[in-house]
C-alpha cells in the first residue's frame, strides 16, 4: 500500500493549483482524477476568462478583486506563455445595465476606459485552461482513470479505496461531492459549455456581454480561431441517462446520446446568437465543443478549509440546534481533511489564490478568512435542524 504526505482528489484548476503549492513543501504528493487527464471536466470546458467583478463594495467583490490581483501576477510571473492579456470590453446588456455600470464607477477597483459600446478593462485576460493545469501539476505523481469510491480515516492516515494512504487529504472534486458525508456542504451543479469556432472575422480583444468572446487567433490567411462561452444550465430532472451525469468520466470524449446532443446543439445556437450580438462572426465553423459542471455554493462564496464534523459537534453542543452561537474554534473538525470547492464560473481567477491560502492554512496554521470557510454554511444549516 502506497503512502503519501498529501493526496489531492480532482485534477481541475483547483486540484492542480493545490498540488502546485503543496509541491513547495513536499515531493510526496499524489494527484488523483477519474478522468484520463487534467482539466477534463468543468475546467476544460471553461472559457477561462479573467476579469473584474463590477459592483458596489461587498465581501464577495473584495474576494474576487484580491484573487484577480494575485492570480494575474502569478500567471504573468510563472505561466506567461499560457496567458493572453489583451483587455476585455464589458458591454451593458441594456439601459438598466448601463445605469448600473454608472452607479459602480465610484467603486471601480481596476482601470477602464470607454470603448465601442462598452468599457475596456486592460486587466481582462484569457488563460489556456488545459496548458496551465498541465504546468501547475508538472512533476506531480498522477493517478488517472481512477474512481475514488471510499475515503476512511484510520488512525493518523486517510485510506482511499483501501489502497492508498494519505497524511492529509484534499478534495477538489467540483460538483460531485459524493465523498463528503455532511449535509450542510451544499453544492449546485451549473453546467457550462464552451465552443471553439473558425471564422473569417478578426476579433482584436476579449468581449463580454451575455457570453464571453475571446480575441481571435490567426490560423491561416482567411480563418481565425475564436472561443465562445458559456451557458448556465441547472437541471431539475434526473440527468443520469445523459452525459450531464456527475458520475461519468471523460464526458467530452464519449458518444453523447440524443438528449445530450439536442441540449448541446441548442446551446451552440444560443452562444452563436449571443456572440453575434457582440461582434458579427462570418463563415462560422464549429470545431470543438466541451461541456462541464461548475460547482457553485448556495451563497456563491467558495468553500475552503476543514470540514466540521456535524454529528460530533451536535453531541458536544446540542443547543446549536436552537440557534445558540458557538465559536468556530470550539466546533469539532474532521482531522486532516480539507476542501477547495465552489469556485463556480471564476475558477481560473479564484483557484490559485484560494489554493495558496488553503495550503498555508493546512501546513502553516495561517487563518483563513471566515467568509470562505465552511463554518458559515454549517452555522446556517445547524439552526434549521431543531426538532
TrEMBL record:
Report the superkingdom from the record.
Bacteria
| Cellular compartments per GO CC | cytoplasm
Q: What is the residue range of the signal peptide feature?
A: none
One Pfam match, by short name?
Answer: DAO
- PROSITE patterns, per the entry: PROKAR_LIPOPROTEIN
Query: What Gene Ontology terms describe what this protein does at the molecular function level?
Result: oxidoreductase activity
Q: Which Gene3D superfamilies does this one have? A: D-Amino Acid Oxidase, subunit A, domain 2, FAD/NAD(P)-binding domain
Kindly state which keywords UniProt assigns to this record, in alphabetical order: Oxidoreductase
Q: Which residues cross the membrane?
A: none
Q: Could you confirm whether the keyword Oxidoreductase appears in this record?
A: yes
**Residues of the FAD dependent oxidoreductase domain:** 6-359
State the InterPro entries in the record: FAD-dep_OxRdtase, FAD/NAD-bd_sf
- The name under which this protein is listed is FAD-dependent oxidoreductase, possible FAD-dependent cmnm(5)s(2)U34 oxidoreductase
